[in-house]
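Can't paste images in this forum, so I'm doing it all in text. The chain is below; anyone willing to post the predicted structure tokens underneath?
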Amino acid sequence: MKKIAILISFVFVFGQALFGQSDFRDIKTTTETETTIKAYFDSTSHDPIEGIYKTTSGTYYKIAIKKYDDSRYLAIILDAENKKRWKEGTVKAYFEKSATGTIFSIRYLMGDKSPSETTAILEYGTLLTMWLPTGYYGADEKTIYLKMYPSNKTETNTTNKAITVTGSSFFITTNGLLATNAHVVNGAKKIEIKVPNDYGSTTYNAKLILIDNRNDVAIVQIDDASFSELKPLPYGISENADIGEKSFTIGYPLNDIMGTKYKVADGIVSAKTGISDDIRYYQITIPIQPGNSGGPLFNSQGNVIGITSAKLNSKAVGVQVENVNYAIKAAYLSNLINMVPNIDSPAPTNLLSTKELKEQIKILKDYVCLIQVTK
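Text version of the structure:
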């Protein structure tokens, strides 16, 4: 009987070596904890897929994805909504890298630990998307895990690791002058502007022309021989806005997570002053996020009335606040434009005043750009 047991053991181990899967997918638990995982990431280089993630919706899971060998990874539970079933250190999924480095074949263990074969895609180095069966007529549901640790700046294979700040900007002349916030470009060693076009965008080098740190306004100029002059601006700068006036912004919020396509948000002007009645700002109900900084605040006629620049931080004031955001008034931009030789602040127009918002956006989006700054 002992010989049979030894023979069975030998066959099992030999099978693992021969097929290369059993020693990987037969792992059910590990001794890993969040502390040991973070120590691993802090002490060694790692692949872009490796890291600590948590679900963005639905059933809560926090997992660590850690390399098993050259092309395979274990997804290990660190925390879960159902702690009795999913204890820390339990394996949640098995990842295998495809020929495309950002797409993975995975075996994902569902809530009842039944396996599901699917795929996962790593986007922007931070979003892990997979499609899992819902149980309803064979339909699949998208599940997204957001990377929480380590930051992209410490990853070895991320193409954006040199870019430390991104924001929004918009043209104020057809020959390549753009406005943005001073805090976006202050201390810049390199500035790049991604100008939208019919095929996506084109990236141009730019340089700082003028900066007004006190009022958080700056002007940059595209400094690239390949740049061609734009069509006439369909908007101008309006230095007046009333409380209750409808407004909207176009920008690039959280582009490393939400993507590099422009985003639109609308609301109203809720006050003509900012924090502590600062007269330089409008208070607005338009939701803004990091990355919106430097974007244009348009009125319902499609003219620029401000530059989106800040939001009220709940932690700073000690109470929960919602939708309290600020834009520097366009008058401070006009003052800076008037300091540039041979340039006048563009006057308000009526070109877009009769168009619906969706039609205005189709035109205005081509003049609002993602700005990337290396400091």
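The radius of gyration is 26 Å. The chain has two domains: 26-154, 165-374.
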